Amino acid sequence: MLLNLFGSGKESMSAVDTAWLRMDRPTNLMVITGIMFFEGHMDIARLRGVLESRLLKYQRFKQRVVRTGTNAAWESDPDFDIDNHLHRVALPGDAGKPELEAFVNEHISTPLDFGKPLWQFHLVENYQGGSALVARIHHCIGDGIALIQVLLSLTDKEADGDSAPAPKKLKFQAGEREPDDPFMRLYKPVAKMYAGVLKSYGKVLGTSYGLMMNPGKIAEYTQTGLAISQGLAKLAAMPADPRTKFKGKLSTAKRIAWSESLPLPEVKHVGKALGCSINDVLLSCVAGALRAYLVEKGQNVDGLDIRASVPVNLRPESKLDKLGNYFGLVFLPLPIGVANPIERVYEVKRRMEEIKGGYDAIITLGLLSVVGSLPNIVEQPAIEYFSTKSTAVMTNVPGPRDPIYMAGNKVSDLQFWVPQSGEIGMGVSILSYNDRVNFGVMTDKKLVAEPARIIERFGEEFEKLVLATLLSVVDCPPDPELAELHLAVLRMQSEAGKHA
């Protein structure tokens, strides 16, 4: 429990969570938005029961934010009513994807009510013969890893699972990922290093006793401090990202789109055939899609790199079942200027290898803690400054490998969108579920009015990479992975024929 600065009944907000709270602005709301799609019609009474027993056991969802000067705190909402947060709606017209996109677009640009707990669910009762749950939760409550796990704690592995007692403790799955899962190659080394740095600096900053008793540790501390100092200098000297169709003055209107999902096994086959991770393959597809959009808009992309701010999970073992924000950021230059899909995936791999051993994520988490402790007049220029160094926020969250159920209804798919800070105008979200990979894009309407023009290219770029991979190894001996890729091409051609 943090030191209580607000008196009885209030809990002080952490400095990092306060930083995310104060990033909220009309042009970029700090709200994470997600959708659960259901095969059948959701019973709202049963859904309400699940929320009351499983969501509201976390006090955060019954607390509102109070602010005084530079500080912020959580206090119980004396008038809390779940009906202020759970709404039922019906889509107009054909009640299909365009209508749901329009509904989300309308709400994604609308601030949450700060007089109440900062979350809101809308049950869409008539989506494509089934239903959908649109969830909006403010970033100060938790980061993407925490919030996706909270939502998953509302689900079960069987249709009647909600009749059993609610789990006593939330179990996070961030560390239970396959070695080649998205972002795992980045997460593990940095997370381990972060834990070591915290331990070292806890001794240095807390007392000199550790050094007196262990003088041999001085070199270790000095080396760590030097590395962080060099990282800070490098970050400060990083130039602003180039101006493209994705970067400019923002409006107060956002637009979202989501893709048809990619089969995760086929993404794995491509990665294995090329000696790359799933993450390398997916990020290469993102870079290719952004490149294709810029080319369509007449922009010169020769030699172009644009940076993506990539959240890296730094959640300590002691915080695995806690809400709040425990992540730093790394700046990944996407090789937009590389046209060849195979060259591009290897370039992504090379750049990821360069990043994963650095201290960038630790430094940015520390900076967020510092600015969250300072007056807002100091934080805002700092956020503006660092937001010039990126064009997009890009994040990946692992979902369940097997189908799940919520309030007796099978979840057919999952989707989410990451918010952007400062003057960043685009967010790219990747989410895996049930052996599929989904992409979501959020853009500023003034910069990219139709993000669907970007999102539809992810699948196209993956197909190009599959074909290029097959052609590049045409003279090699038969390989099971390549055989699977060949079958994947046949399946994609068959699907294309059906829709022709």
TrEMBL record:
<keyword id="KW-0443">Lipid metabolism</keyword>
<keyword id="KW-0012">Acyltransferase</keyword>
<keyword id="KW-0808">Transferase</keyword>
<dbReference type="InterPro" id="IPR009721">
    <property type="entry name" value="O-acyltransferase_WSD1_C"/>
</dbReference>
<dbReference type="InterPro" id="IPR014292">
    <property type="entry name" value="Acyl_transf_WS/DGAT"/>
</dbReference>
<feature type="domain" description="O-acyltransferase WSD1-like N-terminal">
    <location>
        <begin position="13"/>
        <end position="281"/>
    </location>
</feature>
<keyword id="KW-0319">Glycerol metabolism</keyword>
<comment type="pathway">
    <text>Glycerolipid metabolism; triacylglycerol biosynthesis.</text>
</comment>
<dbReference type="InterPro" id="IPR023213">
    <property type="entry name" value="CAT-like_dom_sf"/>
</dbReference>
<dbReference type="Pfam" id="PF03007">
    <property type="entry name" value="WS_DGAT_cat"/>
</dbReference>
<dbReference type="InterPro" id="IPR045034">
    <property type="entry name" value="O-acyltransferase_WSD1-like"/>
</dbReference>
<feature type="domain" description="O-acyltransferase WSD1 C-terminal">
    <location>
        <begin position="324"/>
        <end position="465"/>
    </location>
</feature>
<dbReference type="InterPro" id="IPR004255">
    <property type="entry name" value="O-acyltransferase_WSD1_N"/>
</dbReference>
<dbReference type="Pfam" id="PF06974">
    <property type="entry name" value="WS_DGAT_C"/>
</dbReference>
<dbReference type="GO" id="GO:0016746">
    <property type="term" value="F:acyltransferase activity"/>
</dbReference>
<comment type="pathway">
    <text>Lipid metabolism.</text>
</comment>
<keyword id="KW-0444">Lipid biosynthesis</keyword>
<protein>
    <recommendedName>
        <fullName>diacylglycerol O-acyltransferase</fullName>
        <ecNumber>2.3.1.20</ecNumber>
    </recommendedName>
</protein>
<comment type="similarity">
    <text>Belongs to the long-chain O-acyltransferase family.</text>
</comment>
